[in-house]
Design goal:
- The structure is a homodimer.
- By secondary structure, chain A is α/β, with parallel strands linked by helices.
- Chain A folds into two domains: 3-108 and 321-340, 2-Layer Sandwich (Nucleotidyltransferase, domain 5), CATH 3.30.420.40; 129-317, Nucleotidyltransferase, domain 5 (2-Layer Sandwich).
- Chain A has helices at residues 40-55, 92-100, 109-120, 179-183, 185-197, 226-231, 241-249, 253-277, 293-306, 324-336, and strands spanning 3-9, 13-20, 28-33, 62-67, 71-72, 77-78, 104-108, 129-134, 138-144, 147-149, 281-285, 314-317.
- In chain A, the strands form three sheets. In chain A, strands 3-2-1-4-7 form a five-stranded mixed sheet.
- In chain A, strand 9 (138-144) and strand 10 form a beta hairpin.
- Chain A is globular.
- Chain A starts with a strand and ends in a 7-residue tail after the last helix.
- At the A-B interface, strand 9 and helix 8 of A face strand 9 and helix 8 of B.
């Protein structure tokens, strides 16, 4: 049996697992939360202890790493972490190769997830796909010709900051109407909060830019935001994207409006990307994609309307769930060791 | 000397040329306008006569073809022409291979232009680029890893129908605010005409959706549309994209507004694509890109503002000019014959 070691530096958590090549079942699996004052050194120390605890005397044939932040995948150097201090220019691949003497592959979590879904999940058998994670942020990773496409500077996949509505709300990046500004969980919560705080204003003032389409229309019924307010006991600081989705599923019109706008933004982004790159599949993962059938219906409908009729594609759910980074890391490890080129 | 035959089925014109492998100077060159009632048969007959007139007794080593319409490049079959009847499902590669007994490559004009600029023009030495033509339509072609990327169904490159402004004017495709709707020559002319026909309306009503940015602001000066009206002797049916560009260069504020909106749309599209694919270069060709420094300044500024700060790219002018399809056809021919893989 040939062993693979998969590592996930996830920002707030660290995970490691081992698997035999060809198997889809973890041999061993360890997970820890990053401590409150984590830095790169403490993260590396914790990961090292996880690894030695997992491996005991076994020796893996390759290591794959998913890192939650920008990585130069060609050298395996972490550029920085947005969550944990001290990760600037850490040669993670080099450190692990020196310590374990085996091939190591390192990439950012979106590219790793794309590769994981391609190899083991919803992208199996598809040579071209775009993986999109819709969670606290919105990011993506490409598979083209069966291989990761990372871009000239390793920056490809940034659907999150594609401008969808130039008259939309201002994003953290400074632009207006980015996909992330409209579709990420925290921003959905913010959008709902702003509407609730301003609930007596006429509805028309709330969506100046997006034309009143089928998906954004009011359906009448439950009073705006009633259910959503109930879920947080009127404390709007407690709103989350997940609660918006729950309220929408329970029939809350205001929550539906916010959720539909997020789905609309994702759908326009996907349709634009279908026109531009014509991949076979879009694979969507992350917390927001658990928002229910209504969300998926709008995403698919808007994507289909935005793409040219001749452009075929499917929009499907990721299937690897919470283990996406680790299964992606296995795929990266297999790429890193030329012996496994055809595994 | 090894001879290459390059063919261009351009919709309204047909061209053929020969060149020796390694040379950048045409040996012979012929061009004809398509007749008014052209169909696929007459186009093929004219092209055949051009070819035999060019070749005399010489025998080329490969043929490359640029076709102005959708092509299945894997089989070299034309899907249809938007300009000339009867091209549906014509196996152009097969016809030429049967007649001349040598390798033939056929692709649509945007992919061919991308390959031509990559091999002989502004894309030399760049492994990843997106070629954009801005003319009567707006289209594009990809080079990734030094090879054409055509998409799963051969439809990649459709920047023209990327939605940039969901509250913008309605495009022929049925959507609002596509790049082509805002930036193509004929639509620029239409936008100018509509403003002139409605010139007494307050300026604010003319751009409801795009925020008043630096580029769209009025500068005062010449009265709106005066120069533009003069260029067409007040006959607004004579307006063209080129005249809009000329009037803008001469200081006409209304023409500048239309041109800047086109440049803005292209810039947003380029910035979005830079975030998504991170290519090294954007190479822009086509009549609208001759609109002058002001146009280029806005395109580059908006593209830079739209892309994330970490995403590097250049926006440059195509250099092959009117011969782009034929030089691209040479590149396609070299790809079609494995002997020239390293030429």
């Amino acid at each position: 049996m040939t062993l693979i070691l998969a590592l996930d530096f996830g920002g707030t958590k660290l995970a490691a697992a081992t698997v035999n090549v060809g198997s889809r079942k973890w041999l061993r699996y360890e997970r820890r939360l990053s401590p409150a004052n984590a830095n790169a050194s403490t993260d590396l120390e914790i990961m090292r202890s996880l690894i030695y605890s997992l491996l005991e005397d076994a020796k893996p044939a390759a290591i794959g790493v998913s890192f939650g932040g920008p990585v130069d995948a060609s050298t395996g150097t972490v550029r920085l972490s947005h969550h944990v201090a001290g990760w600037e220019n850490i040669p993670l691949k080099g450190l692990l190769e020196n310590e374990f003497g085996i091939p190591v592959g390192v990439d950012n979590d979106a590219n790793v997830a794309a590769l994981g879904e391609h190899r083991f999940g919803a992208g199996q058998g598809y040579d071209s796909l775009f993986y999109i994670t819709v969670s606290t942020g919105v990011g993506g990773g490409w598979i083209l010709n069966g291989q990761p496409w990372r871009g000239a500077g390793g920056m490809a996949g940034e659907i999150g900051h594609m401008v969808i509505d130039p008259a939309g709300p201002v994003c953290l990046c400074g632009k207006r109407g980015c996909v992330e500004r409209l579709a990420s969980g925290p921003y959905m919560a913010q959008n709902a909060r702003e509407i609730l705080e301003n609930v007596d204003a006429p509805a028309a003032s709330r969506s100046q830019s997006v034309p009143e389409g089928k998906v954004a229309q009011r359906r009448g019924g439950l009073r705006d935001g009633e259910i959503l307010r109930g879920l947080v006991g009127d404390d709007l600081t407690l709103l989350t994207g997940q609660l918006v989705a729950e309220a929408a599923a329970a029939g809350d019109d205001l929550a539906k409006e916010v959720l539909h706008k997020a789905a609309w933004a994702l759908g326009v982004g996907i349709g634009n990307i279908a026109n531009l790159m014509n991949p076979q599949r879009f694979v969507l993962g992350g917390g927001v994609t658990k928002a229910g059938e209504d969300f998926w219906r709008v995403v698919r409908q808007v994507a289909r309307e935005t793409a040219l009729p001749e452009v075929d594609f499917e929009v499907v759910s990721a299937t690897l769930g919470d283990d996406t980074p680790l299964w992606g890391a296995v795929a990266i490890a297999l790429l890193a060791n030329p012996e496994f080129a055809n595994e």
